[in-house]
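re: ur question from yesterday

yeah so i grabbed the chain u mentioned. its 346 aa long if i counted rite. heres the sequnce exactly as i have it in my notes:
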Amino acid sequence: MSLVQQIEVGSDEGDQRVDRFMRRRFPQLKQGQIEKMCRKGEIRVDGGRVKSNSRVEVGQTVRVPPLPDVHVAYEKETRRLSDADTKLIQSCVIYRDEQVIAINKPSGLPTQGGSKQTRHVDGLAEALKFGFEEKPRLVHRLDKDTSGVLLLARTRTAAKALTAAMRHRQTRKIYWTVVAGVPRPYLGEIKYGLVKAPGGGKGLGEKMLCVHPRDVDRTEGAKRAITQYATLYRVGERASWVAMEPITGRTHQLRAHMAEIGHPISGDGKYGGSGQENLGDGWGAKMGGIISTKLHLHARSMSFEHPETRKMITVTADLPEHMKETFENLGWAPEMAADDPFESLN
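ran it thru and got these C-alpha cells back, copy pasting raw so excuse formatting
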C-alpha cells in the first residue's frame, strides 16, 4: 500500500473529471473504488470533498489516500475486443482526423454502458485509437435505438471544445424520421417542456412527459425544450417523412414531442404505442405490413466548428437498413430532401 499523496494537476490534466484523472494516474484502480473513496471523503481537491464527476483544474491539489499496489488483485482489467466487434465499430467511421472521429452509430447499440449493457460505443471505442495512446472520448449521446452521427474527441482539448460548443448550442443536428399521419402545419416549432415520468418508467426505462410551455416554470423538475420540424413528404394521411432539429437537447425530446402533437415516430413503443395500429388517423406507431417495427429515428447530419482549424464541418450519415427499406417502400429517396428544410424558420 502507498502513503497519502498530494498531487498537483498538471498543465495537460485540467478540465477533466476526478475519476478520469485518477484512472490516468493510477490504472490499477477500478471505477467502483474511486467512487467509494470520493463518498468517504478520502479523495479531496484543494482540501474539499468531491464527487467522482467533479472536475479538476490546472494547479489544483488532489489528495490521494493509500492505494493498492499495481501488481495485486486490483490490477485494472481490460476486456479484449473480438475481431468482429473491432471490424464493426471501425466500419462505422464516417469522418476522422487528428482531433475528431465521427461514426454512424447502428440502431440497437447503446452509446454508453448501463444496467445490463456490456457492449456499447464507449467500450468499443478501444478499437478507434488508430495509433493514439487513449481511446476517443464521447462528447454527446444518442439513444440506444437511434442511429446516425455520433462524435468522439481524440484529444482532451478537442473534447473540451466540442462539449462547450454543444452546451452553448453552437452545433447543429438534423434528424430524419418517419411519423404516423401528417403533421400540420407542415413546418413548425414544438415548445412543450419535459419532465421525468413518476416512478422512472420502471420496466421500460426512463420516460418523459410533456408539459405545456406556460406550466414549465411551476412544474418541479420540468425543463424547457424546443424542436423545429419540417414535413418533407407524405403518403396520404398514413405516414410522413419529417426532418427535425432539436434546439435544446433533452432526454427523448424528439420522440416525446412528436407523440405529444399526435404523430409518434414509427416503431416507438415507448411514446407511440407500437401495439397500436396506424389506421391513417395520425396515431399509432405500428405502421404494419412490411414496414419494420424498429424505431425510425436517425441523426442524419451534424455541423460543428472544428476544435483546431475553426472551420465548419458537416458530417452526414447514411440511413440504417430498416429505414432504407421503409423509404424504398414508401417511394422516398434521400436526395429528395431540401438542403435546409428549416431555412424559412431560421
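noticed a couple things. The chain has a mean pLDDT of 88. also The chain has three domains: 5-64, 83-167, 172-336.
anyway ttyl
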